[in-house]
């Protein structure tokens, strides 16, 4: 697909739906159904193939296979023939010493790929190993060069970046989409066991995006999205939409590994037990034990997403999940980066701001719609987080739109 056409379609999606979705995949099945579900583009990455093999995404960084050859093989056979209207991006290992970068990317385009993405990326390495790689000429600058070449060849480009300097480099190289990579996705059984908190992710994205807007001439025009780390649920992504400049997300494990783990495990257990499951089932206990930490916090975030207008208490949630309030509170802050109460208040205030901007509804009615029965308390909290009273916030947004 033509680069300009892709960008035009993405901006239309942002204008209509508020955000875009990219899916990183390693085989035809998840790519096909992600496209049917509305994915705006597909990234063909070697990490996706390793996930389909039952391995962690981390395997794509080790010498188990030639990453570029792996992507060529599965994407050309399984994706390009099926997905005619969804852009497919080639995840290139730009530091592969066996390829001539310009000629290789030119060939990738001739095969039918609409764009390029820098994966695997040395940006995920640090410390002494990163220093050793760079001494051998294996560096992020090589990935920047790949994006620059792809842009020269009029290919659509999505650049993974990990800090402000890299973001500026990729923006100046002509990247169409800047994606802040927050590390491998947590959640599920094969997911990363350590990930930054959601609040840390917000601060990181906010810092990087602002630096690009300040220092790159075309910074504000670049589409800004995020990937991985603590984002394993729609509620996680919504938190970043509402608190940073990002207008989309790219997911791998969130779209293929985690749903597959859940579906296959549950279906197999259903057949094994003839559909008779209960809390005393030994297999279910083992499954819950394997994924216990993620289930509690994911459940709470999803519950807030669906019931923010109701009276939500951590004590009630602790009874439902059969763990103490103190335990839930501590785990929530460890994983999300802010307290349960702060998360709930931010969520409600952001929802109220959306209503004030788009709906002609009285402020006191909006307060009730987002869970506040006391308007004075709502107004106080709204001003604390948005800097203006609800009425002034609405007036300022009306004036801005005019």
Separation, N- and C-terminal Cα atoms: 36 Å
Structural class: alpha/beta
SSE topology string: HEHEHHEHEHHEHEHEHEHHHHHHHHH
The CATH topology of the largest domain is given as: TIM Barrel
Please tell me about this protein's structure:
The structure is a single chain. Residues 279-294 have low confidence and may be disordered. The chain has 19 helices and eight strands. The protein has helices at residues 3-17, 28-36, 46-52, 67-79, 101-110, 127-135, 140-152, 164-173, 198-215, 234-243, 257-272, 282-290, 292-307, 314-321, 325-336, 340-358, 363-369, 375-386, 390-401, and strands spanning 20-25, 41-44, 88-92, 115-118, 156-161, 177-181, 223-227, 248-251. The radius of gyration is 22 Å and the shape is globular. The relative contact order is 0.08. Helix 2 packs across helix 4 and helix 16 crosses helix 18 (375-386). The protein is of the alpha/beta class and 402 residues long. It folds into three domains: 3-252, TIM Barrel (Alpha-Beta Barrel), CATH 3.20.20; 256-287, no CATH class; 291-385, Arc Repressor Mutant, subunit A.
Topology:
Elements: H1 3-17, E1 20-25, H2 28-36, E2 41-44, H3 46-52, H4 67-79, E3 88-92, H5 101-110, E4 115-118, H6 127-135, H7 140-152, E5 156-161, H8 164-173, E6 177-181, H9 198-215, E7 223-227, H10 234-243, E8 248-251, H11 257-272, H12 282-290, H13 292-307, H14 314-321, H15 325-336, H16 340-358, H17 363-369, H18 375-386, H19 390-401
Helix pairs in contact: 2-4, 7-8, 8-9, 9-10, 16-18
